[in-house]
Amino acid sequence: MEQSIEAINSIIRDRRSIFPQNYIQKDIPDEVIRQILENANYAPTHKMTEPWRFMVFKGESLKRLASFFSERYRSQTAPEAFSQARYDAAGEKVMKSNCVIIINVELHPEKLPEWEEVAATACAVQNIWLTASAYGIGSYWSSPGVLKELGAFLDLPEAQKCLGLFFMGYHDGAELPASKRTPIENKVTWAS
To answer: Which GO MF terms are attached to this record (predicted)?
Structure first.
């Protein structure tokens, strides 16, 4: 058991946000992605609603997702302000990733408040993040201001909401920055 504690402590404390500009061209096997998502499925869930929903974009589907961001830039920009460089950059993070997982939550308002479903989904994403880190896969969760538009683009059912994108890719192995956390003692009160 002691070995398990050491492993989980290490994985939790070594987890970092690693961004697409640090990803290398190396395929994440589908079986690894399935394992990562299987671990997400073991997040805590009140009333067993299991509200997390994921959409995996990999290979050719990444181009479609990148196009959404580029075309959104075009549609939101006045012709005189349009920049081809910004258009190209709009989908760049997607195309530098080997895999992007869209994070959605399925709400059950008749059973639970929305915040509980979002919290459960965030726990599932933490499981994804920790598992990806254990596999040596760089990743980070992004919640751009276009989530409602992204939900429409994805044709999400009415009961679902998009919570963001989870970018993934093997990374260049550069030394990761140390984690910066203030002491836990500053955040805990022991009740008497």
So the answer is: oxidoreductase activity
